[in-house]
Amino acid sequence: MTVIVRPLRPGDPEDAGAFARIRRTCLPAMLATPASVGYDAAHAHPDSHYRQLVAVADGEPIGTAQVGIAHDSPKPGQGYANVYVHPDHEHRGAGTLLLRTAEEHLAQHGATQVYCWALDGPRNLAWAAAHGYRRSRSARFLRLDLTGAALPPRRLPPPGVELRTLADFAADPRPVFALDAEVAADEPGDIALALDDYDHWLADTWRHPLLDHELTSVAVVDGRPAAFSFAETDGEGRYSSGMTGTARAFRGRGLAKLAKNDSLHRARAAGVTVAYTGNDVDNAPMLAINQWFGYTLDATEIRHVRTLDA
Questions:
Q1: In angstroms, rounded to a whole number, what is the distance separating the alpha carbons of residues 105 and 308?
Q2: Among 47, 61, 83, 161, who pairs with 18 as Cys (CB 3.0-4.6 Å)?
Q3: What is the pLDDT of residues 179-189, one digit of tens each?
Q4: What is the C-alpha to C-alpha distance for residues 102 and 81, in angstroms, rounded to an integer?
């Protein structure tokens, strides 16, 4: 049975739906819908050279890859290729073919290093090593059952702090962008981020179909967003924390915990049944916050990197 790799078909809802289903099957914590898959393709920054690849066997999509250049990093030449193969179709060479196609694309656009994630497990880690990738850092995906979990009770914000939603900033999202840029710059990871393109942020983040403006909570101090917890939802009862963080000047006051707790309560009231979140293993403050909420481990991924041959 021959496996081929091709680009995702733009505007094809069935193709986008298959792409999303494979992603959700392999890693439920990473929300994906046909709308979000199509949106990512249509609104990718041109400097990212973003591609979505599909591995197909006998006309059936069995694997996916998200491929691109980290254009928003101050260090050039960094690419990524995140490959997922449906567990019912492993051992057929789809992952290897997806990765090879991704590396060729990235090399054509100036990548000298390629980062990829591999689910923690002997088979996946051996696969990454066999393709020349070395282990880097880890990330944990956590799960919280909102139908049975006893969330910490809501508490009133401290004096001078107000809780709002993202929808309250619809007239002028720029203060939220400034906070997101500051938080992203301090987030642990292999690839440093420097968010400095407001117009692209509006398209890539603010208008993204997964971002739920009503369920995203923002802690405001003196009219300025000081902490937030971005909420992503897929319309099928699943919720994911897109980013939670606090401006440097306001850290240590429990504002991120306050915002996230408010968001989770909003989500449960809106009918969300399960909440996911993900953290770098070195992000001790957020891991502690999520433990306080009662999240449990759902999956672990290990990031890998390979230097491409010149």
A1: 12
A2: 61
A3: 999 998 887 66
A4: 6
Give residue 88's identity as a one-letter amino acid code.
D
Query: If you average pLDDT over every residue of the chain, what do you get?
Result: 93
Considering only the C-alpha atoms of the chain, give the largest distance between any 2 of them, rounded to a whole number of Å.
Answer: 66
In the sheet where 60-69 sits, what is the strand order?
3-7, 51-57, 60-69, 78-85, 113-119, 296-307, 134-145, 274-280, 238-246, 224-233, 217-221, 161-165
pLDDT at 160 over 70: yes
pLDDT on residue 62: 97
Q: What is the mean pLDDT of residues 73-81?
A: 91
Residue with tokens 């960094």, as numbered in its chain: 78
Higher pLDDT, 14 or 285: 14
Q: Is the dihedral of CA 17, 19, 20, 22 positive or negative?
A: positive
Three-state secondary structure along 111-133? CCEEEEEEECCHHHHHHHHHCCC
Angle at 14 between CA 8 and CA 19, to 5 degrees: 50
CA atoms of 279 and 262, how far apart (whole Å):
19
Asked if residues 221 and 179 have their Cβ atoms less than 8 Å apart, the reply is no
Tokens of 148: 């049975």
Cβ atoms of 8 and 16 within 8 Å: the answer is yes
Q: Could you tell me which of 76, 80, 123 has the C-alpha nearest to residue 305?
A: 80
Domains of the chain: 3-111 (3.40.630.30), 144-300 (3.40.630.30)
